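Blinded run. Sample ID left blank on purpose so nobody reads anything into the name before looking at the predicted structure. Input follows.
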Amino acid sequence: MNQRSIMHVEWETHMGKGLLAINLFNTLFTAYDKTTRHYHGIPHISAILHDLKAANQLTKANYLAAWFHDAIYTPGMHNNEEKSADWAQEALNRVGINAPIIDTIYTRIIATKDHKALGDIESDSFLDADMAILGTPPDIYARYTANVRKEFAFVPDELFAKGRGDFIRTTLDMARIFHTEYFYDRYETQARQNLEAELQNL
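Blinded prediction complete.
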């Protein structure tokens, strides 16, 4: 099976085979599969789901938060998270997800704006999985940074370097990049090495 088919089967496992649910999958997949999604695309969602499964934190709320957290993404806009969370709230209500789960998903999506800990292992595992790319081996990290630059191709080099540098410094200033022990043990050291190397090369 191709990746779409595999993810479709996984979606049915979590969401069932109802028409509204399947239509929602197709809409989300199409949104992430746009050619402009050099980084914030299907491979990013797949990686998050893989990491959450490995951490034994692939709950229904985390599964849906992963799918919706970048559902609306325009590079440089500061309200992507709010728009994505609003879409999740509206769409998941229509397909019959319980209100408390929707509220949890909404909170987790908004939290990806600054990645501050929410205080419970399930929520913080989701936030950590979203940042796990930072702690990947240098060759994978290099592809990540190249793809982010492609998404911001409209930004002049000098301005991009300033914005990227601000993000790196803010991240390095955190006492911990990864909140949960599972992700901290696997990614923290390499993430700091990757970020420091990128900062020097900007």
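Unblinding after everyone has recorded impressions. The first helix runs from residue 3 to 15.
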